[in-house]
Specification:
heterodimer, A: alpha+beta, Uridine Diphospho-n-acetylenolpyruvylglucosamine Reductase, domain 3, Enolase-like, domain 1, four-stranded antiparallel sheet, 26% strand, B: alpha+beta, Ubiquitin-like (UB roll), DNA polymerase, domain 1, 2 domains, 5 strands, 16% strand, globular
Chain lengths: 289, 155
């Protein structure tokens, strides 16, 4: 299907993009790769009056190490994130997640910033950003600000970005020495995750010293699993990880839909947490199953 | 209407388009290059795959205005001076098509991938084509064709 009519402007600077968005009012939207927004527009689920194309703003593209953090521009494609050598340690989670989004063609066009701004609870990157304690950077006409991922995602397809603000990128702690993994369950290869689990784990000789778990599609926003994270500390054997994973049932009941009941989502989360943590720990003998 | 220009298969085109015109419709209906197919129309099947600045993309999920200034390659640009591209020869020789509907997208995805990885393994080819669906389920010979083309292009 063809989208409903809209006006289109291509911005040549961030300032120009912000001015165009402000002039366009609340129905104006920034457009990057378009791989979240255009499918919605084609189904007429979104009908923006104006698209401000920020795809040419090269200053919003690229991955840069900055001390103990990595800064990723909003226009960096999933393909580029997947191949970014700067994403070391726990931050490597983002590369692992990006390489599993959609298919090669989608990864060539889809952008990190677009995925973040879209705030789909079934999308993979938000849970990974949450698990990494990432910050989302925003630009508006009043200046720039950073919002913790935990505060950015406020509901299904709703974020803390105000009308007229543009997501300019994310800042992610490197978490040197930590391991990471992302496991998702889907019925068909390119479907959205029925449940996804991002795990970032600090594995030491005496077992797990710290862990962060981000959950995809277990609620209206990506979620952390604090009970699981606390129970994982000190775990050094598979059985202990499995026991810690069961604490995911303490979270608010996840939604049911045509793919999974609430109970099945909790079951999937338990299984995937155990697998993701074992993989992230990278400890021989913990990977099987 | 917006004035756009892009290079398609080495030829520069200028045209006025509505902002909502999808790149695949611009290619098929305004440039009359109908080798690029519309399959699922939901960025799943890959029949509309073209190369945009050298990378495979699904042209049903790109606005024509987004491709302003881009270098686009479609299946019509593969052969040169009447000589088939190695990927076309390989699909022919390995029987890499049945009904042929997915073939242009398959070949463009493969050409984009072989440029990135000129000597892939069979598993890598299967993964690289995960965004292209063949409703005849002829994947086996498609993969054989891509591997044969890689051999041919490398030798």
């Amino acid at each position: 299907m063809i989208p409903a009519s809209f006006d289109y402007e291509r911005a040549s600077s961030l300032d120009e993009a912000l001015s165009l968005l402000a002039a366009g009012g609340e129905d104006a939207r920034p457009l990057a790769g378009g791989h979240s927004l255009l499918p919605l527009m084609r189904l007429r689920l979104a009908r923006p009056s104006l698209l401000v194309d920020i795809g040419g703003l090269d200053e919003l593209r690229g991955v840069h190490a900055d001390g103990n953090s990595v800064v990723i521009g909003a226009l960096t494609t999933h393909h580029e994130v997947a191949g970014a050598s700067e994403l070391t340690g726990g931050s490597g989670l983002l590369a692992r997640v990006a390489e599993g989004i959609g298919d090669p063609q989608v990864r060539h066009r889809g952008t990190l910033g677009g995925s973040v701004a879209h705030a789909d609870p079934a999308s993979d990157l938000p849970a990974a950003l949450l698990a990494l304690d990432a910050e989302v950077t925003l630009a508006g006409r009043d200046g720039t600000r950073s919002v913790a991922a935990a505060d950015f995602f406020v509901g299904p397809f709703m974020s803390a970005a105000a009308d007229g603000e543009i997501v300019t990128g994310v800042r992610v702690p490197k978490r040197e020495g930590w391991g990471s993994a992302y496991r998702k369950f889907q019925r068909r290869a390119q479907d959205w995750a029925i449940v996804g689990v991002a795990a970032v784990v600090n594995w030491t000789e005496s077992g797990i010293a710290g862990a962060a778990i981000g959950l995809t599609n277990m609620g209206g926003t990506p979620l952390r699993a604090p009970g699981v994270e606390a129970a994982l500390v000190g775990a050094s054997e598979k059985a202990q990880i499995t026991a810690a994973a069961s604490k995911v049932s303490e979270l608010e009941t996840p939604p049911a839909d045509e793919n999974a009941s609430s109970e099945y989502r909790v079951h999937l989360a338990q299984v995937l947490i155990a697998r993701a943590v074992a993989e992230a720990a990278g400890c021989p003998g913990m990977q099987s199953g | 209407m917006k004035r756009i220009s892009m290079t398609v298969n080495g030829v520069r085109h200028e045209a006025d388009v509505e902002p909502r015109t999808l790149l695949v419709h611009f290619i098929r209906e305004q440039l009359e290059l109908t080798g690029t197919n519309v399959g699922c129309d939901t960025s799943s099947c890959g029949a509309c795959t073209i190369l945009m600045n050298g990378q495979s993309v699904k042209s049903c999920t790109v606005l024509a205005v987004q491709a302003d200034g881009a270098d686009v390659a479609t299946v019509e640009g593969l052969a040169s001076n009447g000589d088939w591209h190695p990927i076309q020869r390989a699909f022919h020789e390995q029987h890499g098509l049945q009904c042929g509907f997915c073939t242009p997208g398959m070949m463009m995805a493969a050409v984009g991938y072989l440029d990135e990885n000129p000597s892939p393994t069979e598993d890598e080819v299967r993964l690289a084509l995960e965004g292209n669906l063949c409703r005849c389920t002829g994947y086996h010979n498609i993969v054989k064709a891509v591997l044969a083309a890689a051999d041919d292009m490398g030798s």
